[in-house]
Write a structure and sequence with these properties.
By secondary structure, the chain is of the alpha+beta class. It has one domain: BirA Bifunctional Protein, domain 2 (2-Layer Sandwich), CATH 3.30.930.10. The protein has twelve helices and 13 strands. The longest helix is centred in the middle third of the chain and has 19 residues.
């Protein structure tokens, strides 16, 4: 695997939200971190959970084409729209990560290379857990152009275990700064994915795998985050400093939540195809 500059140890800010949050609040926190990046080299790594099953849409997806809204409402499943591109993800029993950075030296200025580096760091985490993983090739054109959910196929440089997708990630870039976040299922989705996404059950069979399935044992959020944090620290040669939001930052986050991610206009409107995004 290729590695970033090994001559110096940088300090990244680390946020581990052990308490599950609503979908709109999770998205608002990630949005705030991305907005708060300065022109100087700065990186935030965050791990978090969801208080109930939540569907997240890619930035430009048509909600009526990819989500059974009525089913979600009846089942108490939240729906949010991400700031990143990519396809529908059902967040449930999982570890979600986000990495926001303006560090051009570590990640270069290209979307594809930063995506690949993050995947390689996550792979080191899976190696620590006892899993052999590898980077996927490009998916079929039908998947790229269609409305299948994120975990139907791995995108290029996403991570597979035993021929099945184990991480779904999406990225947004603006100039020298970017945010990438991704879903790492800890357990199966309890059968929600098919109904929420109009996906026939047999269509997604065998294309995704949870961490517990891959390891043959049930694993926890804390255990998974510990291994991933250690691996990311080693791979990028960085140390971590805990980040705690102050009162002013929390107020800004809540404002972003209400204006964007808890706003039906943001969630239900059709938006133009994103630029400098992938997923």
């Amino acid at each position: 695997m290729s590695k970033p500059n090994e001559n110096s140890v940088k300090e990244w800010m680390l946020i581990v939200d052990k308490k599950p949050l609503s979908g709109s609040l999770n998205m608002a926190v990630d949005d705030f971190l991305f907005r708060s990046l300065s022109s100087e080299s700065q990186t935030y790594l965050r791990f978090y959970r969801w208080e109930r099953p939540t569907v997240s849409l890619g930035y430009s997806q048509d909600i009526l084409k990819v989500v059974d809204v009525e089913y979600c409402q009846k089942q108490g499943i939240d729906i949010v729209r991400r700031m990143t591109g990519g396809k529908l993800v059902l967040h449930h029993k999982e570890v979600t990560y986000s990495l926001c950075s303006s560090d051009k030296e570590t990640f270069t200025s290209t979307l594809a290379e930063s995506y690949r580096l993050i995947s390689q760091a996550l792979m080191r985490g899976f190696e620590k857990m006892g899993l052999k993983s590898y980077l996927a090739d490009a998916p079929p054109d039908s998947y790229v152009r269609g409305n299948l959910p994120c975990f139907s196929y791995p995108a290029r440089d996403e991570i597979e275990v035993e021929g099945k997708k184990i991480v779904g990630s999406a990225q947004k870039r603006a100039g020298s700064k970017f945010i990438q976040h991704g879903s790492i299922p800890l357990e199966e989705d309890a059968g929600f994915l098919g109904p929420v996404s109009f996906l026939k059950k047999e269509a997604s069979k065998g294309r995704m795998i949870s961490l517990s399935q891959a390891l043959g044992k049930k694993v926890s959020f804390d255990w998974t985050v510990e291994h991933l944090t250690s691996a990311i620290s080693e791979f990028f040669k960085v140390s971590f400093k805990p980040k705690v939001f102050d009162a002013e930052e929390k107020e800004i986050i809540l404002k972003i939540k209400e204006e964007r991610y808890a706003n039906k206009d943001w969630t239900y409107s059709i938006r133009p195809d994103p630029i400098n995004q992938r997923g």
